[in-house]
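Honest question from a wet-lab person: if I give you the sequences of every part of a complex, can you actually get the arrangement of the whole thing, not just the pieces? Trying it with mine:
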Amino acid sequence: NAGVTQTPKFQVLKTGQSMTLQCAQDMNHEYMSWYRQDPGMGLRLIHYSVGAGITDQGEVPNGYNVSRSTTEDFPLRLLSAAPSQTSVYFCASSYSNGGGAGGYTFGSGTRLTVV
Amino acid sequence: LAKTTQPISMDSYEGQEVNITCSHNNIATNDYITWYQQFPSQGPRFIIQGYKTKVTNEVASLFIPADRKSSTLSLPRVSLSDTAVYYCLVGSNYQLIWGAGTKLIIKP
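Yes, you can. This is the full assembly:
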């Protein structure tokens, strides 16, 4: 049982480049989220989805796009990378909303550096 | 939204009980309280969740007083492998507030 799988684990981008961070879960969870984690800033919610075809913005959505065409996959797209997007990105899934019963299952993260 | 405050760091010794408290004065009626553990280069891992009173599982206990303005994660008989960062999360329906994390260091 893989849980939540994120790829790639590490990525270096040049300013202005675009890329997609992949996230897949095999637990049939309806709810999926993307977080970024910066030193001293804790975890901040970027976007989330409550089911296939339904997404919404979190606390820090600017510069990121998401879509959810299947229950399993929830990719995060960086449209035009900026140094301020250097961070560790975590994908998480849950069978209820993240603050509700059961909690999140997190992936192992993607460490992104924008130069 | 509830603001969560937790100590930045704590030290303890193997075999001791460790209690980490999170303050959340503005917690809403529907909010849950959840604790996560994170090791370096890994994603946070769910430890325990509660709504009120006391919850216990195989690894920890969570104490929540009647006013729910704080919560205490209790780790019994810690070992070196419990050295990690512990996060408190309060909220519901994606109105979520994460604490900044408590770095727990266990010494031999």
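Two things worth pointing out. Chain A is about 0% helix and 50% strand. The mean pLDDT of chain A is 93.
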